[in-house]
Every structure is written in structure tokens, then in C-alpha cells.
Amino acid sequence: MAEEVNHLSKYVKLRKDQAPMEEITPGELNQPIDVPQLHVHKCNECGQPLPESYQAPADEPWNTGIFDCAKDMDSCKTGLFCPCVLFGRNVEQARDDNIPWTGPCICHAIFVEGGLAFAATAAALHGIIDPSTTCLICEGLLFSWWMCGIYTGVVRQSLQKKYHLKNSPCDPCLVHCCFHWCALCQEHREMKGRLSDDVVMPMTVVNPPPVQEMNAGTDSHNSASPSTNGGERAHIEMQAL
Fold first, then answer.
1. What Å distances lie between residue 176 and 5, 106, 141, 145, CA to CA?
2. Which residues of the chain are under the pLDDT cut of 70?
3. In the chain, what are the domain boundaries?
4. 49 φ, ψ to 5°?
5. Separation CA 29–CA 216 (nearest Å)
6. pLDDT in tens, 180-220
7. What global pTM score does this model have?
């Protein structure tokens, strides 16, 4: 114990006059360090680093124009009379999260078709309803239409991002606000054309021939067949593998 007490410490305590003269400002030691080797391209979807030679695919034009609705009469009729159904199918095909088409269809029917029906009712009762009330109703409907254009435009933007398509003819939200029904038909034609290119050709199935059997020595008149022990005749069967 005496040896441990008398042992000199390795640490030296500095006096006030021996302290360093430089003052360190708060936060000076917590500054970020710039490492050039860490400056790599990363994927916008998953964040994984990409090689230096990677180049993003260029945006492609749409297969059909915004006003080429007559090229697919089925989607044209559906978009004209039941746009909510066409929108639901587009959402189901554009996204990969297995969203059923009924949910977007119901939302579209409530806000778009319901808003148009409400606007027609307000226009028909223009002389009965107070003008200030009619003005407020119109402002609310215009705001709702703009919000619906943003929602449907997000779906169009996800489709463009999925297939690397250009803005045709302008921003997706603005397209749906101005040409909503034409945009629905164009999106359906685009997905229909691209999905038809990925269809796998059906395989030709060939059924094997039926099982064939050959019995030797069963006929009593066949005396040339070989015999086994005790005079028993051999029985041969042939089956297809």
C-alpha cells in the first residue's frame, strides 16, 4: 500500500498561466468533413450507389397523342360515359402495390362526377338561389376541380416515371385540369400498348402417347414362346417413360 501511495502520477495538472492561449469557439469541432470519395450517384428510389458510367434513360414520347381518343374506341366510350371506371383501371395498372380499381373509381365518382352534377344543379337553380351563394358554390367547385386535377395528375406522373415518358403536352396536373377525359384515354392506351408487348406467347403442350402393353406367351397356340421354371410363360410389359 505504501508503494502505491508514493507512486508518482503520470498526469501533470496545468496551472492557469500554462493553459493554451487559443480559444475554441463552440461547435468548431463538430463541423462536417467533405470527403470527395463519398460523392457518388445514388438511385432516387432505393438510395443505392450507382456506378460512374451510369446514365439515366432518356424520356420517350407517348405512343399516341392527347387527342387520339378514336384510336381505341373501347377506352373512348368508357372514358366518355364512365370515366370513373377508366380511372380506376388506370390506377390499378400503373401502380405495383396491388390497389383494387374500385377504390379510385369510387373517389373519382364522388368528387368529379358528383361535382359536375352539383354544378349542373346550381346552374339550373341560378334564378332561385341567391347570387352570392351561387358565387361561393362556383368557387368551391373550381377549387375541388383543381384538387382532383392534382390527384389524377399524380397518377399520370407516376405513369410517366414508370415508363420514362415526356410531359405531353404540358405538366401532368395541368393536363388533367384542362383535358381530363382525353388524358384518361391516353394513359389507358399507353399502358395497353406497353402491356401487350410484354405478353408471353402460350406454350404448345404435347400429350405423351398412351401406355402400350405387350403380353407374350398368353396365347395357348403360341408354342414358340420361352418358358420359365415349372412351365410358366414370361410376361413382358412396355410402358412409355
1. 86, 18, 15, 10
2. 1-32, 37-38, 45-46, 96-97, 196-241
3. 69-197
4. -65, 145
5. 98
6. 999 999 999 998 888 765 544 455 556 666 666 665 544 44
7. 0.58
| Gap between the Cα atoms of 231 and 227, Å rounded | 5
Largest CA distance in the chain: 130
C-alpha cell at 30: 463538430
Phi and psi at 68, nearest 5°, equal: -95, 45
**What is the structure's pLDDT at 23?**
62
Cβ-proximal residues to 43 (8 Å cutoff; 6+ apart), any chain: 50
What are the distances in angstroms from CA 187 to CA 61, 87, 89, 175, 230?
Answer: 13, 9, 10, 12, 83
Alpha-carbon distance of 137 to 122, in angstroms, equals 8
83 within 8 A of 108, measured Cβ to Cβ: yes
Whose cell is 378514336? That residue is 70
Rounded CA separation 146/86 (Å) = 20
**Number of CB atoms found within 10 A of residue 84's CB:** 23
